[in-house]
Specification:
Number of helices: 8
Largest sheet: 10 strands, mixed
Low-confidence stretches: 1-20, 105-119, 376-420
Order of helices and strands: EEHEEEEEEEHEEEEEEHEEHEEEHHHHE
Radius of gyration: 24 Å
Length: 425
């Protein structure tokens, strides 16, 4: 199983891919929020309880705090012939076990075959707590595969008459990556496996006024499983799930700052486990990003941020300086863990002094007020240490995103912490 993003396994879902733009960059940051947390070591307690945002779990999971449904509702100003594209993205938990060739147990078994072994990729292997080969130490861990499901060109008039349904069907899978000693001898293997997933994406529309529809996107996990084990439930969950909606001609209506004429329509929107905001350039109303982390409209990645740190409740500068102060033993443990942790170590160590100083802070003067909405234009951001910024008015006490700031009228001094919209585990 090749990597698509170092630690993210390649096991790929189906669906329409979204172009790499600012919306996708923000969505990707949200997808991996909390993937690893400071101090990025496997032994750290908070890295033993992962996947806490945006989980859509099997309906049979007997934990009242974890939902099997995620719902996005938002109005759109559009005609009956206008279209909408919908894309749902999430992570699929992948178990990476460490194994070595099993010893021959009887003359009736083939060399290297484990007792009772089947004919799958992992046949003839037995699990171990660690494997040392080629100067590297390998230990079991969890990874993630990115999945995408969606549909494009959905006509609003058709959605009013009948919902569109996209089936989610991901088969279980097991792949073996052999690990060799320098002479080329197979010393063991990394066995990656994932559970099958089943579900659906249901897209519908209601005509609220002659010019306004309310779009509803429901993501439902129908995977057949029942139990109360969080670990087993997460193996069958849609982790960090979020939805992207685009309409070439329709214009979505902000739930945070709607025009007076549509306030009643927006109040009737019921979102579950997610919160939709306008995305893309300031003033653009053709795209919506709906995620389990509450953002302001038009979030974006701060240009000063050197890369993902996955821990948005902290400040980039603080995390970077902390990484640079790690002991050799702590760095060794990180390097033996997830490749994304190694990437953080290498990036922080290679960060030039001028880039490090840019993380100390910055101030951008607020722009003029938009007469149409009364909001400031996209020139007011918070500290440069934040991963993402959001060009809203001064809402310092309102909801903000992980790696998102509430731009104030004076110099910002700290990070505004995000608020989860639900679906935590």
């Amino acid at each position: 199983m090749d990597d698509t993003r170092d630690g993210a396994a390649e096991m790929t879902g189906t669906g329409e891919p979204v172009a790499t733009d600012e919306v996708t960059r923000v969505a990707r940051a949200l997808l991996y929020e909390g993937y690893l947390l400071w101090p990025y070591r496997r032994s750290a307690l908070k890295n033993n309880r992962r996947w806490t945002l945006g989980g859509v779990h099997p309906r049979g999971y007997r934990d009242a705090g974890d939902s099997w449904l995620m719902r996005t509702q938002i109005p759109i100003e559009a005609g009956p012939d206008d279209t909408v594209d919908v894309l749902v993205r999430f992570l699929h938990v992948v178990s990476r076990d460490v194994a070595r060739p099993a010893a021959r147990r009887s003359s009736g078994q083939a060399p290297g075959a484990a007792p009772g072994a089947g004919q799958g990729p992992g046949s003839g292997l037995e699990p171990v707590v660690e494997l040392v080969a080629g100067g590297e130490r390998y230990v079991p861990r969890e990874e993630a595969a990115e999945r995408e499901f969606g549909a494009s060109g959905l006509v609003l008039a058709d959605l009013v008459r009948e919902p569109a349904v996209v089936e989610i069907d991901v088969p279980g899978e097991e792949q073996v990556e052999w690990v060799e000693d320098p002479p080329g001898r197979r010393a063991g293997a990394l066995v990656r496996s994932c559970r099958p997933l089943r579900g659906r994406v249901v897209v519908s529309a209601e005509r609220m006024t002659p010019d306004v529809c309310r779009i509803t996107v429901e993501v439902v996990n129908t995977t057949r499983w029942a139990g109360d084990s969080r670990t087993e439930a997460l193996e069958r969950a849609f982790v960090s799930a979020h939805t992207i909606l685009r309409s070439p001609r329709g214009r979505f209506v902000s739930l945070m700052d709607p025009p007076d004429a549509l306030r009643e329509v927006t109040r009737g929107c019921g979102n579950a486990g997610t919160w939709p905001v306008l995305a893309g350039p300031e003033g653009d109303r053709h795209t919506v990003l709906s995620s389990p982390i509450i953002l302001y409209d038009h979030p974006k990645i701060a240009p000063e941020s050197p890369g993902d740190l996955f821990d948005a409740t902290e400040i980039d500068q603080l995390l970077t300086l902390s990484v640079l102060c790690l002991t050799e033993d702590e760095q060794r443990e990180i390097r033996e863990g997830d490749p994304l942790g190694r990437e953080i170590l290498d990036r922080c160590a290679a960060l030039p002094q001028d880039r490090l100083m840019r993380l100390h802070g910055t101030f951008r003067a607020p722009g003029p007020t938009n007469p149409a909405t009364g909001s400031a234009t996209d020139r007011a951001t918070g500290p440069a240490s934040d991963r993402a910024t959001s060009p809203a008015t001064d809402r310092a006490t309102g909801p903000a995103s992980d790696r998102a700031t509430s731009p104030a009228t004076g110099p910002a001094t700290d990070t505004a912490t995000g608020t989860a919209a639900g679906g935590g585990a």
